[in-house]
Amino acid sequence: MVPAYLISAEVYAALFALMAMGLTLTYMTTKVPNFAYGDMVLLGVYSSYATVKIYHSDPYVGSAVGFVVAGLVSMAMYLIVLRPLARRGASIVSLMIATFGVDIGFAGIFGIYTDYLTNAYVFNDAKEFYTLGPDFSIAGYPGIDFAAPVAVAAVVLIIYLLLTRTKFGVAMRASIENPPLAKVLGINVDMVYTSSWFLAGGLAGFAGAFLTLDLPLLSVNTGNDLIVGIFAASVLGGLTSIFGSAVGGLIIGGSELLMTIWLGSGFGYGGTIFIAVILFLSGVYSVRRKTRQSKVVGAILAALGLWVIADIAAGLPVDFLAPELVNGFGSAIINPFQVGIPLVIMAVALLIVPQGVFSVNFRRLLGLEK
Hints:
By secondary structure, the chain is mainly α. It folds into 2 domains: 4-264, ABC transporter involved in vitamin B12 uptake, BtuC; 266-365, no CATH class. The chain is built from 15 helices and 4 strands. The protein has helices at 4-30, 37-53, 59-87, 92-121, 144-165, 167-177, 179-184, 189-211, 222-237, 242-265, 268-287, 292-313, 322-327, 334-352, 362-365, and strands spanning 128-130, 137-138, 141-142, 217-219. The strands form 2 sheets. It has a two-stranded antiparallel sheet with strand order 1-4. The protein has a two-stranded antiparallel sheet with strand order 2-3. The mean pLDDT is 88.
């Protein structure tokens, strides 16, 4: 039997991959960090909630509704707010602040909507509710355990085919890489950007609806709770690579759950040695880079890895790190750890590979090419 926490991490990682891909797509088109993206996820959450509670369907139907609703709202946000500001020469900072404004507006909208659900339908859990159902099962496992990774694989395949096998995909890549040249070639850049924002919002809404089958507790704050991790996943993937963001989402989503559990209960000797080796190898890789910052960070990571290994070899003398990694820091600090893990992973990764994980030449790293 597969441990429940591993399955939960797999589902969470898959949904983070979907959300990170959408956020990266919005950044690639406007070059603006979209801080209202968590609201698109929340639109999917409440589309699923309404589908289940009002229409007595299931969250999988809600995922289709969430895709359309969040996609249309995201597209409207681009057309009504961002595109007019960009045409008036607004700076990236101004556009970023505009996304903050949209986020604040959505806080009020969701407050009004949940009040309406509470008063009109007497849904006392509208502002905060537990995992929705019904869900199908396979071999005793909830259907979401299979649906989430299958959905990610399908979305990645569809986007790959869209970008490489269709005229629209070629137009999208040209519009993102060089908009003026794309216009000269007769490509409707505005239409491409609008479609991209619809797709990005749709991915967020789709993932948000799936979250209602996975997260134990959801609320009107779920989008804001997730946005930091989504940004971390997108940045880890490189911010300009849709497929890199999928990898970043898998890393951040999976690590966030697994690391919090293991930090609380302990990694054991084998897990701690593995972490120490990873720290050492990452440090060696970073030292080999040209920048002074990378060399300093690499030296610290390599020394830290060697220190942990030496502590284990010496029988875990009392210090502030190795015994806690082996035996755990205790369950009382699981929540503080979980909030900070995506940021720590992103910060360390950017110090080592500033362009994201897809910028690493693994063939050269393994000595397969010069």
